Amino acid sequence: MKSNYAVLLIAIPLLVAFLQPLFSLINKRLTKWVTFLTIGFNFIYSLKLLNYVMANGAQIAIIGNWKPPFGINLYLSPFSMLFATIIYFVALIVLLVYLIDKPTEVDDRMSIATLLMVMASGAITLTGDIFNMFVFVEILSISTVILISFNNKGISFKGAFRYIVLASLGSSMLLLAIGFIYGSLGTLNLASIAYRFNLLNPVYASVIVFLFMAGIMVEAELFPFNAWVPEAYKGSKSYLNALLSGVVGTTGIYVLFRMFITIFGSGQNHIQVIGSVNFNAVIIVIGVLTTLIGEFSALSQKDIKKILAFSSMAQMGIIAVTIGVANMNSINAGIFHLINHAFSKSLLFIVAFPIINIVGSANIDKWEGLGRKNIFLAIAFAIGSFGLIGIPFFNGFWSKMMIVESVVSAGGWMYLVIGTILLSALVETFYFFRIIFKLFVDKKIESTYSVHIFIYLAILILSIIVIYIGIKPSFLATYIHKAAIDLVDKSHYISTVLGVIK
Amino acid sequence: MKNTQGMVNAFFAFLLVVILGIFFFNAINQPLGNGLVLNKDNPDLSKRVSIHYILKNVHNAEDYLAQHKSSYFRNRDKVKSSNLEFGKTKNAESGSANEVTSIVVNYRGFDTLGEVTVLFISILGLGMLLHENKKKYWAKPSLIVRTGANFLFPFIVLFGVYVFVHGHLTPGGGFPGGTIIASAALLLILGLKDFKNKLTMTKIIESLAGLTFAGLGLVGLFTNGSFLTNFLPSGTMGLLVSSGITALIYIAVGIKVAAELSSGIMEMNGGGEE
After folding, report:
1. Cβ–Cβ of B214/A186 closer than 8 Å?
2. Among A38, A180, B8, B206, who pairs with B259 as Cys (CB 3.0-4.6 Å)?
3. Residue B36: helix, strand or coil by DSSP?
């Protein structure tokens, strides 16, 4: 019965979001603090729940006293709680920077949009009902559009427009897939879909999986549904980009993991998506294409936001490859890399915000000599990019090692995939080192911008995490291991939710 | 040059749509042999979860599932149905006479909370894009429009209130009722020359209605241990005072939708009073 209270993670932010217009009548700056405190509550509560499910195994939270599969339920497991916690944590750190940014006329609306976006991302990871997931994907995409169009300038509108067109397309495909599932299986509950998915005709099942995949690929920044990425990142503030990458991207990949492996997948030992098409190969090809396109586009850019945007797209591609390879090692590696990416990329975006203000430009050619002006920011940028490239003693090293190792163990034509991953690491090394060398050029920069203590705090926390995971990767190992087991164990998912043993 | 590229893009987009279209229609319309598919011509409700919502025997189905484990999925129609009689049955499960309402607000009320939020955030984004919009001045309305607007306004509002107050009994409910009331606000903007936007008031009403919805859910959580549980007696099915929190939630939704859509119209009319 205690686990039913997990719904507070969704209900409290919603309640606060509805009340925010009243707070904004008092003072618009107040709404920022209310949002920050609400996300803080979510983070602390989800941390508590994470430890609870780590100790006691997966739980469900039922809503409206209707048991699954009849009502809506939340599924609290090591995997879902781990990602919910990370999403809330990244959002909390990003909001530290948002708090001290200069006030604007639309602060109240921005705070509501940020709050609802983080709430929806957390809810997508927690929910155990496919239509409920669709509703939260809708909230997520609309609030993301609001975040992107924050700047009220040409490029923001362009990015927001592209995003809303793709997101509406994705949502309609998701809705079609849900309609097909309900029409044939007669249920919307994820566990009961997982229980009966192999009864579907294979051709029909492939249509459903294709539609679902296309629908969620917009959020996961995967090719060919990622045309919104460069403009949207360029158009919004760089600390909000950290939310786009660390929260929206992470959520999209989470859904792919959960749906492909637990729900549509066929079992414990050999995980393969059911259908007449080899979906494991499809998703590997998509991942490889996304990685190549992302890395080479990043190489050709001069604008830091676009570089980081394309780089985040590329990392999502690498993680998608691990979903396709789908052995136990690669799932471990994929989860680990997703977490590492969320931390390193948020660090880079947050560091980019004061640097852009000091230098007065997002163009990396103008960044020469920043190390002399503010050595702390330059070092933090280097730490973030080392983590992302995978230099030893930084977090990305371990996860990329694990990915390569797992792909090697899969064998066969996967050797071609290893080539892509290594090539992408090489390209990444090149374009990040190009920026780092520029930072440490001996040149004088004139600027009066003073960096607020909260920005230093946010950067410090994330840098410490990046280095700590690099030195002691076993810190997250138990969490990731349990999460991977939870993800793969389809029959446990079904028996926990429905009480039916497959 | 640019035009050519646009044509090429349009061609590829068209090609993609055609290929996907053929793929879907092929998969859906072919006789597919073994396995479950969508039966379009003769949909069998007894194979879907919604059969229990319609018969209001979800609790029986829960018991059946607990006892018979996996055979439930084959024998959905064997679940004991409860006898329902309009105007007589007391304390029916989810006591609203309107089946759609009992699904939307009770069995899947959490989704409705989400949908209300979708509307809330959409209107918020509209306001954000239009916040620099200047007040519009329309041509002076004619005598007929002025008189008509003044005369019709109370009746439209009354009808809207009727629709959402009777949401648990008759077709309609919070969303249509709220929309009807918002159309009365639109009529006032068109009909009154000196109409003043009252965005602060709509904000307050909207917030309080949202608070009611989420608050009722939280009361259910703290009293009965599950979010959005019906903690009030359901009463006799078919009476105005029945179905517990379902009726209250639909009233809150109606007020919230009315305030939100009205504020959307006012934003387009030129925003705030400041």
Report:
1. no
2. B206
3. strand
Q: Would you tell me how many other CB atoms lie within 10 Å of the CB of residue B42?
A: 5
| Interface predicted TM-score (ipTM) | 0.91
Q: What spatial distance separates the first Cα and last Cα of chain A, rounded to whole Å?
A: 25
Confidence of residue B1 (pLDDT cuts 50, 70, 90): low
Which of A9, A66, A181 to mutate to test binding with chain B, by most B CBs within 10 Å of its CB? A66
3-state secondary structure of A128: coil
Among the partner-chain residues A149, A188, A499, the one whose CB lies closest to the CB of B129 is A149
Calculate ∠ Cα B259-B265-B268, nearest 5°: 140
Give A 251-270 residues with CB within 8 A of chain B.
Answer: none
Question: What pLDDT does residue A202 have?
Answer: 82
User: Is there a domain that residue B183 lies in?
Assistant: yes
What 8-state DSSP symbol labels residue B239?
S
Interval A346-371: pLDDT, tens: 999 999 999 888 888 888 888 888 88
Mean pLDDT split into 10-residue runs, chain A, 502 residues: 85 92 88 92 93 90 87 91 94 91 83 93 93 93 88 80 89 91 89 87 85 88 83 84 90 91 74 76 89 90 89 91 86 92 92 88 84 87 90 88 87 82 90 88 80 90 91 88 88 86 61
Confidence (pLDDT) at A8: 92
For tokens 């990458």, the residue is A245
Does the CB of B16 have a partner CB in chain A at under 8 Å? Answer: no
Q: Please check whether residue B141 lies inside any domain of the structure.
A: yes
Tokens of A203: 């051709």
Total CB pairs under 8 A between chain A and B: 200
Amino acid at A279: F
Q: pLDDT at residue B267 above 90?
A: no
Element of type H or E holding B232? none
Domain count for chain B, please give it: 2
Provide the β-strand partners of residue A273.
A265
Distance CA B219, CA B150 (A): 41
The DSSP 8-state label assigned to residue B227 in this structure reads: B
Interface contact B33, partner A, CB < 8 A: yes
Domain with B139 in it: 99-268
B137 to chain A, closest Cα gap in Å: 24
